[in-house]
C-alpha cells in the first residue's frame, strides 16, 4: 500500500512490506519505487522493507531546481522518523547509492549497512560533469527522446534484445518522472560529494554489487577502488540494471548482505 508524508510542503511517497529488521530501498535516476517490486516481495519475507520515491521521482513531488543527494537523504530520514524507525540497512541503485552514502554520512547512528548496487562512492569526474550538463540541456529540450535513448543504453548489449519488454516497461516508468525532477536530480548528482574514503573507512556493513558489462560504470576502475580493502564485492552478468538483468543472482547477494 502506498503511503506518504509531507516534507517541506511536498508529498514524499513510499511503500512498506513485511516484518523484521528494516531495509530501505532507494531507486536510481529516472526510476521510482516500483523498480523494487520483485525485490521487495522476496526480502519482505524476513525484513520490514521500505521503498521510497525520491524527490521529483514517482509520486514524490519536487522541492526546487536542484535536489542534492543530501536533501534526498534528509527526506529518507524524515520518512523513518515518522515511522519511528531507528536503525536501517540501505540498498541503493545507482543514484540511490549516492543517497544511501549521504544518509550514512549524515546519520551514522541510524546506519547498520550500505549496499551499493550499480553505484559508486566517487564523485563525478570533470568529463562526467560535462556529460551531466549536456543531459540537462537534452532533458529541457527533448525530454521524451532523451529517456527513450538513455534507458536502453543502461543495459548490456545482449540484454537489449532478450529483455526488450522489460526495457519498454522501464521507459514507461521513466516517462512518469517530471522534467523538473529529472533536471534537479541531474544537478544534484553533478555536485555530489566524494564519499570514497568515508565508505571504505566506515564500520557499518558494506556490500558492492557491479555489472560485468555496465556501460555506465567502468568495472575495472570500480574494482580498483576496493582492491586494498575488505569490502565484499560481487560482479553479476549484465549491465547497469542488475535487478532486471541478473535478478536471481542479485537476490542471493542481497540475502547474504542482510544476514
Textual characterization of the structure:
With 259 residues, the protein is an alpha/beta fold. It has a single domain (2-258), classed as 3-Layer(aba) Sandwich (Rossmann fold), CATH 3.40.50. 44% of the residues lie in helices and 19% in strands. The chain has twelve helices and eight strands. The protein has helices at 37-43, 69-82, 95-106, 126-141, 143-150, 159-162, 164-174, 179-190, 196-201, 219-226, 242-245, 247-258, and strands spanning 2-7, 10-17, 22-26, 48-52, 88-93, 111-117, 205-211, 233-236. It has an eight-stranded mixed β-sheet, with helices on both faces. Strand 5 (88-93), helix 3 (95-106) and strand 6 form a beta-alpha-beta unit. The radius of gyration is 17 Å and the shape is globular. The two termini are 26 Å apart. The relative contact order is 0.16. The mean pLDDT is 97.
In summary, what is this structure?
This protein has 12 helices and 8 strands. It is an alpha/beta fold and 259 residues long. The model has no long low-confidence stretch (mean pLDDT 97).
Amino acid at each position: 500500500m502506498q503511503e506518504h508524508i509531507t516534507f517541506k510542503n511536498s508529498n514524499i511517497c513510499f511503500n512498506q512490506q513485511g516484518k523484521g529488521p528494516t531495509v530501505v530501498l532507494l531507486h536510481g535516476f529516472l526510476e521510482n519505487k516500483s523498480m523494487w517490486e520483485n525485490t521487495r516481495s522476496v526480502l519482505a519475507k524476513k525484513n520490514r522493507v521500505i521503498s521510497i520515491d525520491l524527490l521529483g521521482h514517482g509520486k514524490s513531488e519536487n522541492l526546487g531546481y536542484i535536489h542534492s543527494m543530501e536533501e534526498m537523504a534528509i527526506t529518507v530520514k524524515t520518512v523513518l522518523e515518522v515511522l519511528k524507525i531507528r536503525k536501517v540497512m540501505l540498498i541503493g541503485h545507482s543514484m540511490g547509492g549516492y543517497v544511501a552514502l549521504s544518509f550514512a554520512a549524515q546519520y551514522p547512528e541510524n546506519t547498520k549497512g550500505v549496499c551499493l548496487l550499480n553505484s559508486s562512492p566517487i564523485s563525478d569526474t570533470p568529463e562526467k560533469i560535462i556529460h551531466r550538463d549536456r543531459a540537462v540541456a537534452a532533458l529541457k529540450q527533448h525530454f521524451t527522446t532523451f529517456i527513450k535513448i538513455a534507458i536502453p543504453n543502461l543495459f548490456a548489449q545482449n540484454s537489449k534484445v532478450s529483455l526488450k519488454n522489460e526495457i519498454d516497461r522501464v521507459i514507461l516508468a521513466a516517462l512518469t518522472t517530471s522534467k523538473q525532477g529529472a533536471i534537479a536530480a541531474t544537478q544534484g548528482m553533478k555536485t555530489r560529494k566524494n564519499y570514497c574514503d568515508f565508505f571504505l573507512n566506515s564500520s557499518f556493513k558494506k556490500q558492492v554489487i557491479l555489472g560485468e558489462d555496465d556501460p555506465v560504470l567502468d568495472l575495472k576502475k570500480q574494482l580498483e577502488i576496493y582492491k586494498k580493502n575488505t569490502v565484499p564485492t560481487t560482479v553479476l552478468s549484465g549491465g547497469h540494471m542488475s535487478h532486471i538483468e541478473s535478478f536471481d543472482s542479485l537476490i542471493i547477494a542481497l540475502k547474504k548482505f542482510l544476514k
